[in-house]
Amino acid sequence: MKKLSVKLGILFFLIIFGLITFMFFFLHMGIAESRVEEELKALQARGNSHRAVLEKHFDKETIDHVVLMESESLTDVIITNKDGKVLGSSSGIAQYEKYLKIPNSLNTAEGQIVEDNWKDEPYIATVSPVEVNGQLTAYVFMFENTVSVHSLIKGLNEHFFLAGWITVCLTIIIIVFLSKGITKPLLKMKEATSQMSKGEFSVSLPITSDDELGDLAKSIELLATDLNYLKQERNEFLASISHELRTPLTYIKGYADIVQKRKLPDEEREKYLKIIVEESNRLSVLIKELFDLAKMDQNSFAIQKERIELKPFFTKMEQRLFLAFQEKGLHFTLQCPQNIFIQADPLRLEQILLNLLDNSIKYSQPGGDIKLKAWQRKKAIHLAVQDNGKGIPEKELPLIFNRFYRVDKSRTRSLGGTGLGLAIVKELVHAHGAQIHVKSKEHAGTEVELIFKGELKQ
Ligand SMILES: Nc1ncnc2c1ncn2[C@@H]1O[C@H](COP(=O)(O)OP(=O)(O)O)[C@@H](O)[C@H]1O
Ligand SMILES: [Mg+2]
Questions:
Q1: Which residues are bridge partners to 115 per DSSP?
Q2: Residue minimizing CA distance to atom 9 of ligand 1
Q3: What is the per-residue burial (b if ≥16 Cβ within 10 Å, else e) of 302-316?
Q4: Who contacts 72 (Cβ-Cβ below 8 Å, separation ≥6)?
Q5: Share of the chain above pLDDT 70, in %
């Protein structure tokens, strides 16, 4: 029994059936017992009222009158003297004879029930003793047929059986409904997920309901789309990596072959060896950057935040980059007030700023201006690297954080770019819980701004 709908249907059936059985036993018994009790009380009351009449006038005429009254009703009366001799009877006495026994402990005032076993006996019976002048003189026996109680019970039984049949039918309907409404969509989802586990991501699930099942179907579709996107991205990334690795390797191999095979003048040999060294450097930078990104993807690198004072931090970086600025004839300006502090991992912050400054140096013309700025606005600390270099075309701006993305592939290659710098910067900035924004205009310059939230000026 694997089907969910059958399981749910049977559960439903068992609950309803249990409820009906419970009701059948308790309600059914309760109703029958209370009905019999009422009948007995009424019978006793009737007997007692005959007794009252007889106590006033105990004579043949009154006895006949009582008998006559009962012969018209559904109950019967038998009046006996104190020794059990029948004085009057509203119908024959043969069927009542076995009940004409005086109970041992007779309650003379209230009368007594003689027979209350409605289940097995055809009659229920009561007796009321008649006292004339303080002397026990006679007994009034009252009888009532139990047929009416039995027919009541029969009626009840029929109702309960009907209810039982209705639950069986309802259960079948519910099983059919459940298998359509629940099991089918679940089976489709199961098929979809097993398809996905085989690498087939183009699944489409009909979202028919707005309940949890519909939500689940939506989530599975979303998952499929995401996985598909990740798969494509991974393929593109792998293709880019192999391309990026192949290019420097081709150079290295090509020039190494030339140097090895041909007898070259020293000057030319030097030139080729220099290219080999440069390309090897590129390769090791590329591999280091890829490794950084891989670590970031796995979240296996830790950001160890410290309180850093920005002014001395920037000054140290300026000193490190001094030669690079000078080589290209660039003017560097530092705009940072004293006593601005930031909570960041110093090594990572240095990596971020070096990447941004390196870009500004690479993509600026000689004589250009590069600014490194920091300021505080409300509770946030803003850092910015600004240049008046070649800028980035507007339509390419959203793409520059993509891995291996370079605006001008051939030119940037000659500048030694890998296209991974900004991807790494973005990951590092986000790992700090900070934001990064780029503003750029072609041929006018670029400004990259970082916003670190919640750092207070000391
Ligand atoms: N300051 C800048 N000025 C002009 N272009 C820039 C600047 N910074 C980044 N870019 C563009 O964005 C691309 C991606 O930058 P990045 O990821 O650092 O790669 P890389 O520096 O290795 O080329 C660069 O190739 C360049 O085209
Ligand atoms: Mg770069």
A1: 125
A2: 359
A3: eeeeeebebeebbee
A4: none
A5: 97
Domains defined along the chain, listed by start: 4-151 (3.30.450), 212-297 (1.10.287.130), 306-452 (3.30.565.10)
Cα-only R_g, the chain: 52
Compute the Cα dihedral for 354, 356, 359, 360 and give only its sign.
negative
Q: Which two tokens stand for residue 240?
A: 């880019």
Residue with tokens 């402990």: 105
Q: Which ligand is nearest to the CA of 354?
A: 2
Question: In this predicted structure, what is the pLDDT of residue 223?
Answer: 92
Dist. CA 386–CA 174, nearest whole Å:
70
Ligand 1 contacts (CB < 6 A) are: 355, 359-360, 363, 387, 389-392, 400, 405-408, 412, 417-423, 446
Helix H, strand E, coil C: the string for 67-115 is HHHHHCCCCEEEEEECCCCEEEECCCCHHHHHHCCCCCCCCCCCCEEEE
CB atoms within 5 A of ion ligand 2 belong to 359, 421
What are 407-458's pLDDT values in tens digits?
A: 877 665 666 678 889 999 999 999 999 999 999 999 999 999 999 987 444 4
Which of 395, 406, 414, 420 most suits a substitution to test ligand 1, by most atoms within 8 Å of the C-beta?
406
Residue 455 CA to residue 458 CA, distance in Å, equals 9
Q: Is the pLDDT of residue 227 over 80?
A: yes
Task: Give the DSSP H or E segment for 60.
Answer: helix 60-71
| Nearest by Cα to 421 from 373, 372, 358 | 358
pLDDT band at residue 207 using 50, 70 and 90 as cut-offs: confident
**Cα angle 409-425-235, degrees, rounded to a multiple of 5:** 55
Ligand 1 pocket: which of 359, 395, 427, 437 to mutate (most atoms <8 Å of CB)?
Answer: 359
How far apart CA 403 and CA 32 sit, in angstroms, is: 85
CA gap 69, 74 in Å, rounded: 11
Instruction: In the chain, count H helices and then E strands.
Output: 10, 12
Structure tokens at 256: 């190494």
**381 phi and psi angles, rounded to 5 deg:** -105, 130
Centre of ligand 1 from the C-alpha of residue 4, in Å: 57
